[in-house]
Amino acid sequence: MAASDIAVTGLGLVTPGGVGVDASWEAVRTGRPTAALDPALAGNTVRLSCRVPDFDADALLGGRRALRLDPFVRFALVAAREALADAGLDPATWDGARVGVVLGCADGGPGTVEAQHRVLLEEGPAKVSPLLLPMQLPNMLAGQTAIEFGATGPNIVVATACASGATAIGTARDLLLLDRCDVVLAGGSEAMITPLVMAGFAKMGALSRREDDPGSASRPFDVDRDGFVAGEGAGVLVLERMADARARGTRARARITGYAAGADAHHMTSPHPEGKGVEAVLRAVLRDAGAAPADVHHVNAHGTSTPLNDLVEARMLSKVLPDRPLVTSTKGVTGHLLGAAGAVEAALSVLTVETGLVPPNAGLRTLDPRLEIEVPTTATDARISLALSNSFGFGGQNAVLAIART
Fold first, then answer.
1. Which of these, 7, 142, 386, 391, has the minimum number of CB atoms within 10 Å of its CB?
2. Per residue in 130-187, pLDDT tens?
3. Rounded to an integer, what distance in angstroms lies between the CA atom of residue 341 and that of residue 346?
4. How many angstroms separate the CA atoms of 343 and 196, rounded?
5. Contact 124, 108 (CB under 8 A)
């Protein structure tokens, strides 16, 4: 193990598969799709979504507290609590100045903005809530998390579109390597399933319109894929230096051994057609991890189920990783969690290397014949020494994490 390895000592998840790591992993490993027609999107051009089920904010956070938080913050706090408990850390006993929070999101709280805009139009400015800005500002994701746990170290929210969660974890890794922190809560959260946001995605042609068969609407790498299904939720990882984790007697669930980020510098929404940016970060993360292409046994792909994204990503995977590791896009189960996707998928990659179980590609019926990748359609036992977790976003944002077994 390298001195630069970072230990993942805790995981917390809130996903369309369920609240908690166990429920989320069960849905992913069994390939249970979560997409459904969403009553809140009635009247929209596209009505499909992947919602978090059974999220009782009153019970989980307390009614008064929950009312003052947008859902994207609620999800993160619940995931962070689980992650800290999993890591065996008690905020009441730590030096908060050495604890950082680095979280990612794409948009903050659009649901709060839309609700208060209706109040403005219907009842006038005097009725707009004074909590509008404190609830919806993106930085409140990390700010409220710090308040909850007394973390007074670096407090950062990153916004790299759908790469935000992965970028946050990479940034947190750097803080630890630079000795700016001893513990970092890292990940991402998102709650963007609102009528306005979904109308915008639909107008772009980004969403699946397969409403006659919601369960297979998200079908990454399938020859008939027609767009993504929006999801919501959060993933939080507790990161520590490996030596510190050992010193306090805790186990590492996995190691983060590499991180790379870059930009296509090509287009507002489309990936570079030749995949230059994706190829660059894939090669860079291998260098950073000190790994050869043959060392990679699994890739948790970005795999949004959009025609061009999946084509470009798959072509670059076959180019950079010619030994054809097992490739899974867990978005076939969870949908696309947007700014939280990279964090949730990093956590799922940790579970894959920890358990040796590669999740299936839910929704995949017929692999696009242009794609030369290995995509399991059933859960597959495999000894995974090293996995990559890919995250790409609008604006050509690319981030990849290398996650290794302990």
1. 386
2. 999 999 999 999 999 999 999 999 999 999 999 999 999 999 999 999 999 999 999 9
3. 8
4. 25
5. no
pTM comes to 0.97
Which helix (H) or strand (E) segment holds residue 256: the answer is strand 254-263
Contact 103, 157 (CB under 8 A): yes
DSSP H or E stretch at residue 84 = helix 71-87
Task: State the amino acid at position 13 in one-letter form.
Answer: L
Do 72 and 109 meet the contact criterion of CB atoms below 8 Å apart? yes
Check if the beta carbon of residue 231 is closer than 8 Å to that of residue 89: no
In the structure encoding, which two tokens stand for residue 119, read together? 């109040």
Q: What is the DSSP letter of 108?
A: S
Torsion of CA 7, 12, 13, 18, to 10 degrees: 130
* Cα first-last separation, the chain: 8
- CA atoms within 13 A of residue 41's CA, in its CB half-sphere: 24
Enumerate the β-bridge partners of residue 234. Answer: 14, 189
Beta bridge partners of 272: none
Check if the beta carbon of residue 149 is closer than 8 Å to that of residue 388: no
Query: 4 pLDDT band (50/70/90 cuts)?
Result: confident
The per-residue DSSP string of 213-246 comes to: SGGGS--TTBTT---B-BB-EEEEEEEEEHHHHH
Residues 238-248 pLDDT 10s: 999 999 999 99
Reduced to 3 states (helix: H, G, I; strand: E, B; else coil), residue 2 is coil
User: And the tokens for 228?
Assistant: 């993504």
C-alpha–C-alpha distance, residues 331 and 360, integer Å: 10
In contact, 53 and 16? CB cutoff 8 Å: yes
* Cα atoms in the 13 Å half-sphere on the side-chain side of 105: 28
Cα four-point dihedral sign 262, 107, 237, 92: positive
Q: Which residues are catalytic?
A: 162, 302, 336
What amino acid is encoded at 121 in this protein? L
Please count the other Cβ atoms lying within 10 Å of the Cβ belonging to residue 123.
Answer: 10
Token pair in block for residue 338? 């947007």
| Helices (runs of H) and strands (runs of E) counted in the chain | 14, 15
Tokens of 311: 């084509």
Report the 10 Å Cβ neighbour count for 387.
26
Place of tokens 């990748």: 373
Query: Three-state DSSP class for 405?
Result: coil
